[in-house]
């Protein structure tokens, strides 16, 4: 489990769609083999560690569900170690289970912030609400607006400077994870909705 508060931006040194090695500093402090780590919002397991890098393994499901298909040597990735019991949660509860890949449609300066508008599938959009949480490439953000084809977030200068969001341009794909609470609520109420629709159809 993570909080969506990025600790540092690492650099991919090699990636063959099965093993990824990332150069980092801060997250290596107490990282151990078998630990979970969020890489661009994806929860992965550390399999190797050196003085300046760590290595994780990815499977086809990971590549298909994320933007890892276009990730390569030299690319920056947001990093966060798994939460420890008793840690403050500065963002929100993040699983590191990517739901979809969204596309940056527009970037607009707004005072001292930057507004980013993303387009995503209707299947994912159903779980997104204004003022709700969303994770973009592992960064916990608040949704400022929802449109028919996507959503917006506002980025403060600190977040922009200390994550890979500063490198994103229109057309770039990002990993997104919606607030899992919405999924649980849907799952719980769906039988009642189905039952009501069934009764309506019989009347």
Indicate the topology.
Blueprint: E1 8-15, E2 19-23, E3 36-39, E4 42-49, E5 53-57, H1 60-65, E6 76-81, E7 100-110, E8 113-119, H2 122-125, E9 133-136, E10 139-146, E11 150-155, H3 157-161, E12 173-178, H4 180-202
Antiparallel strand pairs: 1-2, 1-6, 2-5, 3-4, 3-6, 4-5, 7-8, 7-12, 8-11, 9-10, 9-12, 10-11
Describe this structure in words.
- By secondary structure, the chain is of the alpha+beta class.
- The protein folds into two domains: 8-81, Elongation Factor Tu (Ef-tu), domain 3; 100-183, Elongation Factor Tu (Ef-tu), domain 3 (Beta Barrel), CATH 2.40.30.
- 19% of the residues lie in helices and 38% in strands.
- It has helices at residues 60-65, 122-125, 157-161, 180-202; strands spanning 8-15, 19-23, 36-39, 42-49, 53-57, 76-81, 100-110, 113-119, 133-136, 139-146, 150-155, 173-178.
- The strands form two sheets. The chain has a six-stranded antiparallel barrel. Strands 7-8-11-10-9-12 form a six-stranded antiparallel barrel.
- A hairpin with a 3-residue loop joins strand 10 and strand 11.
- The model has no long low-confidence stretch (mean pLDDT 93).
């Amino acid at each position: 489990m993570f909080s969506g508060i990025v600790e540092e931006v690492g650099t991919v040194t090699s990636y063959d769609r099965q093993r990824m090695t990332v150069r980092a500093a801060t997250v290596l402090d107490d990282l151990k083999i078998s630990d979970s780590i969020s890489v661009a919002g994806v929860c992965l397991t550390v399999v190797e560690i050196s003085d300046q890098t760590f290595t994780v393994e990815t499977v086809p499901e990971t590549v298909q569900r994320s933007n890892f298909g276009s990730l390569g040597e030299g690319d920056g990735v947001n990093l966060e170690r798994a939460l420890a019991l008793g840690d403050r949660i500065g963002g929100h509860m993040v699983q590191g289970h990517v739901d979809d890949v969204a596309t940056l449609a527009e970037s607009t300066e707004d005072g001292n912030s930057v507004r980013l508008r993303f387009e995503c599938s209707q299947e994912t959009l159903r779980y997104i609400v204004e003022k709700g949480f969303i994770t973009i490439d592992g960064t916990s953000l608040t949704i400022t607006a929802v449109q028919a084809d996507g959503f917006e977030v506002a980025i403060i200068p600190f977040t922009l400077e200390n994550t890979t969001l500063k490198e994103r341009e229109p057309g770039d794909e990002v990993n997104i994870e919606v607030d899992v609470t919405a999924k649980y609520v849907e799952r719980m109420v769906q039988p009642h909705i189905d039952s009501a629709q069934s009764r309506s159809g019989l009347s």
